[in-house]
Amino acid sequence: MRTRLNRLQTEWIRARISFHLISMALKICSNPFRVFKKLQQLRSWYDLTFYENIGIRKIYRSQDRYFFRLHVPGWPSEAYKKLMRAELEEVFGVRHRGSMLQFIIFAITKQCPLRCMHCSEWDRMRTPNEMSVERLKGILQYYQDSGVSQILLSGGEPMTMVDQIPELISDSHEKIDYWILSSGYNLTPENVEKIKTAGVTGVFISIDHWLPEKHNTFRDNGRSFKWASEAAENVKKAGLLLCLSICATKEFVSTENLWQYAGMAKQMNAQFIQLLDPKQAGRFKQRDIDLSQQQIEEIEQFYRDINSKSAYRDWPVVLYGGYSMRRTGCFGGGKRFLFIDTNGDVHSCPFCESTTCEACTKDIKKPAFYSTLQISQ
Ligand code: SF4
Asked: Could you read off the pLDDT of 25-45 as tens digits, one per residue?
């Protein structure tokens, strides 16, 4: 079951989350005045990075936990505590870990039935997978030990590996929130149940237009929208969280299209929407893809309105990385997240071509490369 909390429930859970945060802060620093000041600082940074007066306005309950932002694990949980402890240690200047790495995007397979116009993995795809399940597990174990709180399994199409996913995540799903980044392919009711039983928290489904034919053209597959919408229904029935993800191209971006898309996501019962700016990578390399200034302003206005205006309380929460990037910089390169490709090489993000290093050394337990990654961007 997953439900959206009503106003009263939201206030109650928000108060409990705040109380928990304050008590975590007081464990780091016993001076309440300093705690107050530092929490204000953290809040100002969030306001600047995400949008003004960010607060928690929409909360979803799923499998006995509460979710309010896409890259914040469900509360209460070990994963949530890990993430917020790192944030607090950073703001109090007492960080013990080598980095603020909080989540990884891990491409586990080169196989995919689609040919999307924007595919950033294109050059590495359609050859046999190089990494064995053992190797994939080793990398996951390595990042689990390193303290990440969220892992996004991508590809290619990760659902082509549905039979291996339970084995991959079985050792760590209680400490880490796992999400699947899918096109909707192979997310049948049985397979959704399989990943749910394995411990997956939620699924991103890529839909690149609210008009089915435009999405299908973008994905170069006449059945893609059908797969995606049936997958969304199956995810809903299983009670997993759902995020619709869109590459917001210059052909797509207009205020009308953004709201039509959000309306579709609301109808599909998605809790989240992820908006991605088009990037010069993979099949989009050297293409004329940049958004105009007017389009950027339209997306930012939409992003602020849907997340903060009370009229949109029952609409999905939107994550728009481009907004944060233009204000406080990129979170990739190990600052908050990393991308590991299907060869096991690490990149700052799925769109940065340069390889930073191997996913982990031969000795998986060896202390890592975080400090170098922090300056690699
Ligand atoms: S973008 Fe994703 S779904 Fe599309 S071809 Fe690339 S890997 Fe496959």
From this structure: 999 999 999 999 999 999 999
